[in-house]
Amino acid sequence: MELRNLRLDLARAKSAMRIAQHTLRFEQAQYEEAIIERAGGSKALGANADDRQRALTIALGNDQDYQLLVKQVRELEYRVDDIEALIAGAVDERRRDEARIRDKLADALLWTVGADLPSAPDDAFDDALAQVSQETLDALSATETPCP
User: Fold this and answer.
1) pTM tops 0.90, yes or no
2) Per-domain residue ranges for the chain?
């Protein structure tokens, strides 16, 4: 898939994920309120805040509608992660292709001026370009005739 399309898919997936996360937070508050009302008040859920939070967590874990919302959010989060991984792979592939092109251009430039092709490190293009530029300038200055 093209990098531009992947980025568009990522934007859409992130938007859907944010909407789902907002919906989940809103629904969670409503479910918690209903659980507290059914229990007869928050004090009925436990003696202290930790006990009450634990009781709410257990009740939400047993609520199928709430769990469906959680599942939808998780699936959207996984989708975002997948698209981000695809983008990273596409960017790596693109950089690899660019490096191959730079290597071929450097080889072509060196071949054009008759230089020996080096077995070069990653900064070969910069070094080769500097070498070719200097050799080209030297060759041009040796053959230039002044303009009248």
Assistant:
1) no
2) 3-143
